[in-house]
Amino acid sequence: xxxxxxxxxxxxxxxxxxxxxxxxxxxxxxxxxxxxxxxxxxxxxxxxxxxxxxxxxxxxxxxxxxxxxxxxxxxxxxxxxxxxxxxxxxxxxxxxxxxxx
Length: 101
Known about the structure:
The protein is α/β, with parallel strands linked by helices.
């Protein structure tokens, strides 16, 4: 079974480890909702993602909406090229709040 988890890297940064796609989207979406309730700005580092698909991008977009609605900032770091390519093809790349290393 595919699995993905958040690891707290400190200073408002979390790292996703594992698959980021259809098999894990529901679980990661729920984990992200808990983070919104913590009331802090956040950077999500995707350097630990071992595989991704369009469901991963959909989760990112949903998190963006939820954080924006809560008045919080969300940024993504080390987004896999495969996710960026899906975002480009979908004309969504410019919407992603990407962070610098």
